[in-house]
Amino acid sequence: MFGSWVPAGTSWENYVKEIQTVERDEKSGDLYILMIFKNGKKSRVKNHRVRSRCPQRLLDFYEAHLSV
Amino acid sequence: MFGSWVPAGTSWENYVKEIQTVERDEKSGDLYILMIFKNGKKSRVKNHRVRSRCPQRLLDFYEAHLSV
């Protein structure tokens, strides 16, 4: 269901519809972001790419899930 | 103990020693970041300024406190 499509440009800030969740890969321990783009594509993307391409959308996600 | 000093430039990424915590202001409901700069200054800064000046350091903080 979640593929690997991502936008071509260096900034994805305006292409993200929603970050659905953040998960840790069981084998590698790496973080992956499950996200939905405005074109309807659902992708599972390595954390470091999301941090560099759309840091503000990732910050939105973390703030929305704060417990404070 | 936490003041309001911040670096002069538009990027603080290399001036941050540590983000200590994120807290919600009881009256306004706004988020504030309690952070320590490399010069030893401890500051309480509005979330939106930290997001724009050092998003990568703020992402570091959230990742370090993930429960996944």
Alpha carbon gyration radius of chain A: 12 Å
Order of helices and strands of chain A: EEEHH
Q: How many H/I helical runs of chain A?
A: 2
Which class of secondary structure composition applies to the elements of chain A? Answer: alpha+beta
Mean pLDDT of chain A: 97
Strand residues, percent of chain A: 25-35%
Principal-axis shape of chain A: globular
Q: Looking across the biggest beta sheet of chain A, what order are the strands in? A: 1-2-3
Uncertain parts of chain A: none
Largest sheet of chain A: 3 strands, antiparallel
Q: Largest interface, by Cβ-Cβ below 8 angstroms: which chains and how many residues each?
A: A-B, 14 and 14 residues
The total beta strand count of chain A reads 3
Helix content of chain A: 25-40%
Oligomer: homodimer
User: Terminal Cα separation of chain A, in Å?
Assistant: 33 Å
